[in-house]
Design goal:
Layout: H1 12-31, H2 36-46, H3 58-63, H4 67-80
Helix pairs in contact: 1-2
């Protein structure tokens, strides 16, 4: 009998891809004069792509990431540090 909890797993290569993509998005937002943290949080909370600039294809890049997996990885890194 299960309690209805879904278990997510992220392969190591996907973690590196997420990290590099998030860094590219962060850099693009920063270069355009936005507060990257606020913009990325706004995107993650609403999934509204207009929080992310089109500069350097940042909006396209972040749209390729699975938001749930990205949030999971961010929480894991926050709680346990980067591994």
């Amino acid at each position: 009998m299960t309690d209805g909890t879904i278990k997510f797993t992220i392969p190591g290569e996907d973690k590196q891809n997420m990290r590099s993509t998030l860094r590219c998005v962060f850099d693009a937002l920063n270069e355009k004069g936005y507060n990257p943290i606020n913009q990325i949080v706004g995107y993650l909370l609403t999934e509204d792509p207009t929080y992310i600039t089109n500069y350097n294809n940042a909006r396209y890049l972040i749209g390729k990431l699975d938001r749930d997996e990205l949030l999971q990885e961010l929480v894991r890194c926050y709680l346990f540090g980067q591994k």
